[in-house]
Amino acid sequence: MSTPLVRVADVTRHYPGVRALTGASLEIEAGEVRAFLGRNGAGKSTLIRVLSGVERADAGTVEIGGRPLGDGGVQRAGELGVQTVHQELSLVPGMTAAENLFLGHWPRTAAGRVDHAAMRRAAREIFDRLGLDIDPDAQVGTLPLAEQQLVEICRAVRREPRLLILDEPTSALAAAEVEIVLDAVRRIADSGVAVIYVSHRLDEIRRIARTATVMRDGRVVGTVDLTTTSTDEAVAMMLGSTYEAAVRPQSRTVDRTRTPLLSVSGLRVPPKVVDVSFDLYPGEILGLAGLMGSGRTEILRAVAGFAPIAAGTVRVDGEPVPRVTPAGMKRRGVGLTPEDRKSEAIVPLMGVGENMVMSDYGAVGTSLSVRPSRVARAARELIGRLSIAAASSRTPIAALSGGNQQKAVIGRWLHAGSRILLLDEPTRGVDVEAKEAIYQLVRELADRGAAVLFVSGELEELPLVCDRVIAVRGGTVAAEFTGADVTVDAVLSAAMAA
Hints:
By secondary structure, this protein is an alpha/beta fold.
C-alpha cells in the first residue's frame, strides 16, 4: 500500500452555533481525482478551506505528502503544494493570458523589466502540456468562458501543485465546453497531481473521477467507488433519513385546463439555458429545481426581461410577448424577487414603506411628486396584509429580519398588482419560523389566483410549498413531478442523474 498524498484525520471545525465539520477523515492518493459530493451546507466548502489553510481546524490533523499542515495557514498550504481554483474567476480581463498566469510573479530581465518573452514561452509550455490551444498574448476578457476557466486552472498548475482543488470549475459552462476542462483535469492527474473535484453534476463527476467522498451535515459519510455506486445510492447517502419525514401540507387544487398565466416555450439563454419549456397556471405554485449552474436564475431573469433571450417564446395570458423587457413584463403583471436580496432587492437605508411602493410610484402620488401620506397608507396596508414585523413604515428596511425583508420585497410586487411572481430563493438566509411564514404567504397568494414560480436550492422545501416541480439539468427540463410525487430524493435524482 502506498502512502496517501492527502490524509485528513478527525478534523473538526465549529462556528458559533454551527458544527461545520465533525470528525471528518479521508485519504487521497497521488494522481487520483476525488469527487466531493454533498448538498449545500454538507461541509464541502469548509473542508476545502481547511485543506487550503484558509480555516484552521479546531481538532484533528491534515497532512500533505506526510507533512503536517498545522496552523501555518495559506502560506504553509502553498509550501506543501496545495492550490485551489474557486468557482468565481479571479482573472484580470484587460491582461493577456500569459500575464494572468504570472500575475504578481512576473519574470524580470537583468535590467529589472518584465520579461514578456520568457512569460509567453512559459505560458505556451503549460498550455501545450495540457493540450490547450490558447494564445498567450490574447486578452483574457476576449476569450470564451471555458478558456478563461482553463487559464485560471493553468495559473494554479504553474505553481507545480501536489494537490489541486477545483471548486465547481464547470458550473458556468455549456455542455460542449465541459469536456475541454475535463480533458485538462485528466492530464493534470496523469502527471501525479491529486485532484479534489467539487461538482453537483453527477454525470460529469462519473466522467472525471472514479471515487467520491460523500458528506452530510458536516460529516464524511463515506467514500464510494463510482463505477459500482448508482445515482440513487449516492443520493441516499447525501440525504440520509433526515428529510424522509417531511410532511406535505394539505394538497391544493389547480385547474390546468385553463389558459396558463405564463407559458415559456423553447427558451434558450446561452450558455446555461439550452431548451426550457413550461406552463404556469392561475393559482399554481410551480417549483423550479436544479443544482448549482443548472440555469435556474437565468430562466427567471430572462422571463422577467433582465437577461437577453436567444430563442424561444414567452406568453402571458396566452398572448405572445413580442419583446421581453423589464418594463413590458411589469406591465403584464410579472414581478421578480432576485436571489441576492441585500444587493439587488432592497435599498437598505430607505424605510420599509418606501421600499415596497417603489414598484409603482404612480399609485402613491402624481406625475410630479410622491405623497408621503399615500406612501404611509399603502405601506400600512401591505405591512398588515403580509404580517411584517416593523415598528412603522419609516423603519429602515435594513433593520428588519431577513424574513421580514423578504416579505417586504414580495409586497413590492403586490403593490404593483403583479399576478405572476418569480421568486428566486425567497427563503435564503432566514430562520425556520420565517420560512414557514413565507410558505404560508406564497400559498395565500396562490389561493387568490396568483401564479408563482418558486426557485430553491434547498430541495427539501419544495414538497412543502409547491403543487408541481420541474427539475432542470444541463439547461433543459429533465423531469416533472406533481402532488405526492414531489419528493426530495426523486427531484435530486432527476437533477443529478446522467
